[in-house]
Design goal:
With 174 residues, this protein is of the alpha/beta class. The chain is built from 7 helices and 6 strands, in the order βαβααααβαβββα. The radius of gyration is 17 Å and the shape is globular.
Length: 174
């Protein structure tokens, strides 16, 4: 370790695993807060979702959502993906596994405490953590003399795997 008592905090990695590896190599305890997956960059319309359904649909959905038209986005999604649900799910699952594998490689050799964001899949994230890394959620740990609380996920908004109910989130925060 370079600095006694130092801790590095990283949040919203969104698929930037080369950068995560560089930070993890610093040798300090690392707190990694979700989102780890790059499901969608709303500025560029790039990410896993664009790889699965194409950038045009993603741009359309993003435009509807930015205008507050969640119903319109839901209808556009359903009409554009009908009959392709299994194909989309399989492709998204494969991209998720590949991303979490890259995350695990980036964290190899690090002392890290990792929790999930709303777009993450907690079970898959935890399964890909290498030795020396710990999945944390809803608990307080002592790290370098500091009490650090972890509350993974986000409150319901999009219907994604990392969302947790408001009561569950409240329990994590008390």
């Amino acid at each position: 370790r370079r600095y006694a008592g130092a801790v590095i905090l990283v949040a919203d990695v969104h698929g930037a695993f080369d950068d995560l590896a560089r930070v993890a190599a610093a040798g300090e305890p690392l707190l990694v807060l979700g989102d780890l997956l790059n499901v969608l960059d709303h500025r560029t319309h790039q990410g896993m979702l664009a790889e699965v359904v194409g950038p045009d649909l993603v741009a359309r959905l993003s435009g509807l959502r930015s205008r507050g038209d969640r119903d319109g986005a839901r209808i556009a999604w359903q009409s554009s993906t009908v009959g392709r649900e299994e194909e989309i799910r399989e492709r998204f699952d494969a991209l998720t596994e590949a991303a979490y594998k890259a995350m695990g490689e980036a964290l190899r050799g690090a002392e890290a405490y990792v929790t999930f964001g709303n777009v993450d899949r907690p079970d898959r994230l935890a399964a890909h953590l290498p030795p020396g890394c710990r999945f944390v959620d809803g608990e307080v740990l002592q790290i370098e003399g500091l009490g650090v609380g972890f509350a993974g996920g986000g409150v319901p908004a999009l219907g994604v795997p990392g969302e947790v109910g408001e009561d569950e989130m409240r329990r994590k925060l008390v």
